[in-house]
């Protein structure tokens, strides 16, 4: 039962990043450009991997799902942010906030474990190349990806349910540009200890377990690469691993800063700046980092271009 001083919150107000009209227009243009590049880059990567015979390997299978998750991840937040930057009313319904919170957590966790699966794939390819086709068979890869989606969704659902079962009273203003757990907890007027503990356990477990798989994989890879006889083999191993480690470092670093601190007004203000990077920039950078220095992807892009725009030459 709600006390007389408690009211049922049917919508929240997102305070966003700024109240300055000039800054809002600048941010709108910047975020719109980033979003369009994100969609084009990740959709292009998915199509390229699915249609090119040169990219039918486990590494690119995982990369196509990483691109798909980045499309969903960016689309979960960016359109609403763009709308809020153009209009004075920045309301989001309670149901919309629940869905945004659920999808955000689910997609973050899914991306963490896809990155872990990619690290495992690099370990098997470099350290056990003769067993690569059997250990990373299509059925194994499909099972790994399915498990990441299911695990991510279940965790997102459980965390969102724990948050929205709390009573909210007083201000309905969320000091963020999307429905994030830490600022939402500051609005709750009930006991948040269970939710905070669950948030730390899930964040700590998913971050540490997925990162442990990556670190162990690269520890074994670092011991194997120097023993390779082929200089070209060493170069290719360092190139593919370097791209993966770059994304891992950026994505995990910002998430550690975001979710392993207790919610407070100061931490929420700082987390808004951090969230700009992994919400807008990380999904845009992923396909660029994985493609610009990858000869297989560049070759597939050239072949697709010739096939669609110069069919007579391609033949």
Question: What are its keywords?
Answer:
mainly alpha, 11 helices, 315 residues, single chain, globular
Explain what this protein looks like in three dimensions.
The protein is mostly helical. 76% of the residues lie in helices and 3% in strands. It is built from 11 helices and 3 strands, in the order E-H-H-E-H-H-H-E-H-H-H-H-H-H.
Topology overview:
Blueprint: E1 11-14, H1 21-51, H2 58-86, E2 91-93, H3 94-127, H4 132-135, H5 138-164, E3 173-174, H6 181-187, H7 193-224, H8 231-259, H9 265-292, H10 295-309, H11 311-314
**SS-derived structural category:** mainly alpha
Count up the helices: 11
Distance between the termini: 73 Å
How much of the sequence lies in strands comes to under 5%
Please estimate the helix content: over 70%
Shape, principal axes of CA atoms: globular
Instruction: Please give the order of strands in the largest beta sheet.
Output: 2-1-3
- Uncertain regions spanning at least 5 consecutive residues: none
Mean pLDDT: 84
Q: What is the N-to-C order of secondary-structure elements (H for helix, E for strand)? A: EHHEHHHEHHHHHH
Sum this structure up briefly.
The protein has 11 helices and 3 strands; from the N terminus they run E-H-H-E-H-H-H-E-H-H-H-H-H-H.
